[in-house]
Amino acid sequence: MALHPVLETVTARIIQRSKPSRGAYLAHLEAARIKGGPQRGALACTNLAHGFAAFPANDKLVLKEVKKPSVAIISAYNDMLSAHQPFERFPQIIKDAVREVGAVAQFAGGTPAMCDGVTQGQPGMELSLFSRDAIAMSTAVALSHNMFDSAVYLGVCDKIVPGLLIGALHFGHLPAVFVPAGPMTTGLSNSEKAKIRQLYAQGKVGRAELLEGESQSYHGAGTCTFYGTANSNQMLMEVMGLHLPGAAFITPNTPLRDELTKAAAQRAAVISDQSDEYLPVGHVVDEKAIVNALVALLTTGGSTNHTLHLVAIAKAAGIVIDWNDFDELSKAVPLLCRIYPNGEADVNHFHAAGGTGFVIRELLDAGLLHDDVTTILGKGLRAHCAEPFLGEGGKGVVWKDAPLQSGDDKVLRKADAPFSPDGGMVLVQGNLGRAVMKVSAVKPQHRTVEAPALVFNSQEDFMDAYKAGTLDRDFVAVLRFQGPRANGMPELHALTPALANLQDAGRKVALVTDGRMSGASGKVPAAIHVSPEILAGGPLGLVRDGDIIKVCAETGTLEALVDSAVWHARSMATADMSTNGVGMGRELFSMFRNSVCEAEKGATVFPLPSPIPTTVGLHDKDPVGNTVPGSDEDFSMKKEA
To answer: Cβ–Cβ contacts within 10 Å for residue 460, how many?
Structure first.
């Protein structure tokens, strides 16, 4: 199938834009690699002795011989996060599985893992976004011992998988296999959960009823089953070829889940530099893999958080993407999935209807994904159009082709009969800056709002006004000082039930903010991640109560309809941010707030890899047309050979 012309155009643009930084990245990758031998071969005897001092005798012997690969286990386990609690059992499963193929696995390090569901609306949420970069740094600490030849990464949730992958890419010479824990079984339906939240916001049910509803929804081990950032992470790991096929949505503590974990661990050992199947993560995650991730996000109605995270992940690999790329692809990529909040179904229903293998095959057949990529299977993306099953006698994993037909076309559809012809994520821009809108769950009649501004400096100010009954009118809520420099860019879900109630009552309402709403933003139009934020000179600070604001997803408009002379005569708004800097550990993250880049550049403290002036054309060819050693093309040629 010929590639869609928009896919070709966007990919070519990203490759060209990224040449200097991608070339520098690949040069660093090649310099870090010890070719043909274990990484620990570079260690002195005292270093090595420290590294295996506490190991069992047989494993120690393997490490002493400096012949067989050593696999690092990097885990974000804790038993407060339901999605991460199953990881408690995984290290021993991984160690035993790796021994079966003659290698050794070591628990190299743990990373922090915070739950946005617990910190939502709380001061701790102001650490959430920056925890991603802290996770990347802790991943680097674990791998800095240079003992390892590949790594498995245990993580699921919002900032955790992006942080792990950013850290992994800074050790791009090592293969990386991501191992999910799977979703919890289905509990209270998402529509019932949302209804109870709205009733609570209206004061029609009490806290006891709300807590009971939430407890029935979030009821056991595994990932929350709505399609927010955590499950978007899992979808993207699959389409980027960093999971075993179909691994994302197998529930925890089941025989198939354990067998997939064993298989993933063994795959990590097999693809190290000691084999003929060397597959370093820095080559797996290339420009085409990033474009594939963008497409998968859009076609499934995934989390808007990835308009930050994918940018930061790409940057770690020397690849430069921006919101124009999201916007242009969204216009060409059809919406194939309806998973809550874009529909009624949860991810378990999605998996039963055909799951990730179905989506990947449909997009490949429509020319909307690159097949000629490297994955942890090394076979191109077509190998991931599959679904896992237990092998004979309940041992091992066998893969079967993904079903040709959807099991439920209310949840999952073929590419020639989509829910909509576009991906439902749009760029809006104007004199208020640039922002993203997720409209796949927003009805067409609500996608344009032109109404007076009501300006708020916090979620609490908005909710106080709502509870006081002063918001029963048409308006655009301008919630400012919520960007990464201001307060760490916390998610603003506390507003969703109130705004939904006002919309249901017939009011035209929208939200404009330099903060985040995540993948559960739902049915209310929201222009989020407004960039640049006010503390970076962004024009959102010029808005005043009563200004007419136009937010239109159809035309890509984000405008304050204010006379130009009046607009430019205004001074920038200020706010007392002192309370955002201390308490709940926030003071420890001041260096992140002081050095973070804008949202469209990933809201990260990490820069692009620096170009190396003496290297020319590392991305593909030297000045006379020869393939450069260490480049992506050189790596692909060797794999084909």
So the answer is: 11
Query: Whole-structure pTM over 0.85, yes or no?
Result: yes
Q: Which residues contact 626 (CB under 8 A, 6 or more apart)?
A: none
For residues 601 and 1, the answer to whether their CB atoms sit within 8 Å is no
Q: Rounded to whole angstroms, how far apart are CA atoms 490 and 120?
A: 8
Backbone angles phi, psi at 425, to 5 degrees: -125, 125
Cα–Cα dist 177/242, whole Å: 5
Residue 518 to residue 233: CA distance in whole angstroms: 12
Angle at 598 between CA 432 and CA 370, to 5 degrees: 100
User: What is each CA distance from 395 to 257, 258, 262, in whole angstroms?
Assistant: 11, 10, 10
What tokens does 431 get?
């004199």
Task: Summarize pLDDT for 458-501 with one digit per residue, the tens.
Answer: 999 999 999 999 999 999 999 999 999 999 999 888 888 899 99
Q: Name all contacts of 585-594 with Cβ < 8 Å and 24+ positions apart.
A: 585/124, 585/127, 586/123, 586/126, 586/127, 586/488, 589/126, 589/127, 589/130, 589/488, 592/130, 592/133, 592/484, 592/488, 593/130, 593/484, 593/485, 593/486, 593/487, 593/488, 594/485
C-alpha closest to that of 247 among 271, 223, 277 = 223
* 479 DSSP 8-state letter: E
Mean pLDDT of the chain: 92
For residue 362, the SS3 value is helix
Three-class DSSP category at 532: coil
pLDDT at 617 over 50: no
Q: What was the pLDDT predicted at 618?
A: 44
CB-based burial, 461-496: b 16+ in 10 Å, e otherwise: ebbeebeeeebeeebbbbbbbbbbbbbbbbbbbbbb
Higher pLDDT, 481 or 640: 481
Greater pLDDT, 199 or 15: 15
The helix/strand/coil state of 189 is coil
The CA-based dihedral angle spanning residues 224, 604, 423, 13, taken in that order and rounded to the nearest 10 degrees: -150
Nearest to 527 by CA among 405, 431, 640: 431
Q: Is the Cα dihedral 98, 104, 106, 111 positive or negative?
A: negative
| Structural contact between residues 618 and 629, judged by C-beta atoms closer than 8 angstroms | no
Reported as a single tens digit per residue, the pLDDT across 229-250 is 999 999 999 999 999 999 999 9
Q: Are 589 and 130 in contact (CB under 8 A)?
A: yes
DSSP assigned state of 607: P
Residue 420 has pLDDT above 50, yes or no: yes
Question: What is the residue type of 81?
Answer: L
Q: Give 64-106 pLDDT, tens digit per residue.
A: 887 889 999 999 999 989 999 999 999 999 999 999 999 999 9
- Angle (nearest 5°) at CA 213 between 352 and 477: 95
Strand, coil or helix: 125: helix
Residue 312: closest CA among 115, 111, 131? 131
Give residue 424's pLDDT.
Answer: 86
CB proximity list for 380: less than 8 A, separation 6 or greater: 371, 372, 373, 374
